[in-house]
Design brief:
two-stranded antiparallel ribbon, 5-stranded parallel beta sheet, alpha/beta, Rossmann fold
Length: 148
């Protein structure tokens, strides 16, 4: 599904909490730089990384399914920085999170992180999916257009 600029802006305006799967401690990597940008813009970032205990001053969790219940229920967007071979597993985690919390976060695949099968599975299960777009670039573009 292609989203219009207004749709993307609405997603970004309404979101408060973004879980970042594959968040990095290194600001030299997109998976570190993008969450840092989003945090600067006022979003609460929940880093998901099985080998880090803290990223950007926030406690990191090994997976989405390790989030405490109250935190899991606050996730508005799941932003993905993992290789495409993991995309379907990510979708299954997001769907399980939705089952547990009763909330369906937007699934945002950064460029080069999705597969057509993962997108189809997620959309078929009722998730809103953005893919092939960088959330930081979209935020900056939409902000420059006055939509954010």
């Amino acid at each position: 599904m292609e989203y219009r600029d207004e749709d993307l802006a609405r997603i970004l305006r309404e979101a408060r909490v973004i879980a970042v799967i594959g968040a990095s401690r290194s600001l030299g990597k997109d998976a570190g730089r993008v969450p840092a940008f989003l945090k600067e813009k006022g979003y609460r970032i929940i880093p998901i990384n099985p080998v880090a205990s803290e990223i950007l001053g926030e406690r990191a969790y090994p997976s989405l399914l390790d989030l405490p219940e109250e935190l899991a229920g606050s996730v508005d967007i799941v932003d993905v920085f993992r290789p495409p071979r993991e995309a379907e597993a990510v979708v299954e985690q997001v769907l399980e999170l939705a089952r547990r919390t009763g909330r369906r976060p937007v699934l945002w695949f950064q460029p080069g992180t999705h597969t057509p099968e993962a997108v189809e599975r997620a959309q078929g299960a009722g998730l809103r999916v953005v893919y092939g777009r960088c959330i930081m670039a979209e935020y900056s573009r939409l902000e420059a257009m006055g939509l954010l």
